[in-house]
Design goal:
mainly alpha; membrane; GPCR_Rhodpsn
């Protein structure tokens, strides 16, 4: 028995899965139960939004040459992982949620659970890769284009998907939880529940690789981005205040013509526009400029 467990821990009220009973039972469960209809509508709507939204993201990036940046390649990878979740995972989850039984067979149960872990892990690791990209864009603006070249980003995306597959792969090759008492498992003619066995070793392995380590990485890099943004904002604010103070001292009403002291000139050196810095620079720029003489 593999880690991907197909158990039959279901209610005795569920009839045997057969060609004669199944259709009528499905009709009763799906269409004569207001709760199930509501769940199907809500979850189906959410699933449709997930699929449509991520398709639009992918199309937007590939349809516009201006959007084909290394950062957006990572976003496309994230959108693809979420799109595949909406296509290959969520529909079967909705069926399992409504019917409370797995009706698609043991083989697809194993594949579905593996794909579920793979795609969800890929989504999280893509978020982790995006945080690294943003950190380099903010803290290494001069060398960013060299560090995050198109080829390196492609390798990073490939590494994300390979690492995600490595995390979901062990149960398929024998890392499993053996059940010695076969009498505990009964059969309802393939009408079963598809769930992961709580193997302690794999749970720790999967949780570390899929959640805790990526979470710590993202927290670290976004904290560093916050620190850099805070320092930049404060530096710009101090510079603008100094320039404003110097200008007020040299104004005609103060009796100084500028010969008694030197004005502080604030300059922001930007060799050429760098897209990764635009949002941070504009945010800091607008925060300090409203009262400065440079906007008048």
């Amino acid at each position: 028995m593999s880690l991907f467990n197909i158990s039959s821990d279901i209610s005795q009220d569920i009839p045997a899965f057969s060609t004669t009973v199944c259709p009528s039972w499905f009709r009763q469960e799906l269409f004569n139960n207001a709760k199930n209809i509501t769940i199907i509508i809500i979850l189906g709507f959410i699933n449709a939004i997930v699929v449509a939204g991520n398709i639009l993201v992918v199309l937007a990036v590939f349809a516009s040459a201006k959007l084909r940046t290394v950062t957006n390649f990572l976003i496309v990878s994230l959108a693809i992982s979420d799109l595949l979740v909406g296509l290959a995972v969520l529909p079967y989850s909705i069926s399992l949620e409504v019917l409370e039984v797995w009706i698609f067979g043991e083989l697809w149960c194993q594949m579905w659970l593996a794909v579920d872990v793979w795609l969800c892990t890929a989504s999280i690791l893509n978020l982790c890769a995006i945080s690294i990209d943003r950190y380099l864009a903010i803290t290494r603006p001069v060398h960013y284009r060299t560090i995050m070249s198109t080829m390196k980003v492609r390798l990073l995306i490939a590494a994300v998907w390979m690492l995600s597959f490595i995390i979901c792969f062990p149960p398929l090759v024998g890392w499993n939880d053996r059940v010695q008492d076969s009498e505990e498992i009964t059969s309802y003619d393939n009408l079963t529940i598809c769930a992961l066995i709580t193997n302690q070793g794999y749970v720790i392995y999967s949780a570390l690789g899929s959640f805790y380590i990526p979470m710590l990485v993202m927290l670290f890099f976004y904290y560093r981005i916050y620190v850099v943004a805070l320092k930049t904002s404060r530096a710009l604010d101090r510079g603008f205040r100094t320039a404003k103070s110097s200008r007020s001292k040299s104004s005609p009403g103060s009796g100084q013509d500028g010969g008694g002291g030197s004005d502080v000139t604030l300059r922001i050196h930007r060799q050429r526009p760098r897209k990764p810095l635009v949002s941070l620079w504009e945010a800091s720029f607008c925060a300090g400029f409203p009262s400065s003489p440079f906007t008048s």
